[in-house]
Amino acid sequence: MHLDTVANTQFDHLLRPLGIIRTKNDYYTLRQCMTLICTRPDRLRALQKEVYLPVAEASGHAWRAVESAVRRTAKLAWKTDPEKVQVLAGYPLDHRPTAGQFLEMLYNAADTMYEKK
Known about the structure:
With 117 residues, the chain is mostly helical. Helices cover 68% and strands 0% of the residues.
């Protein structure tokens, strides 16, 4: 599955209730990460090498800045609507998800949206 196959508006509908909107810089970093993951889901097993580094190189930032941006979006989502984040997770959470957990949750949600099309 490629993220482009899931309409931008559908992805935005997933993120908007979590407070992650296009006016936030981290939104675009998150989209770049998700594009890589959606083209090859096995990248979830090597986030630093397969996701953070390529996004960092493309944007001229350090990989830690990319990871930090994903962490900030996860933190914002948790602060905005922890119940919805738990629904995305599919299992109980007693704290905000890690960056990797959040990316995996979003991939699963995007994959489900693609399957429904």
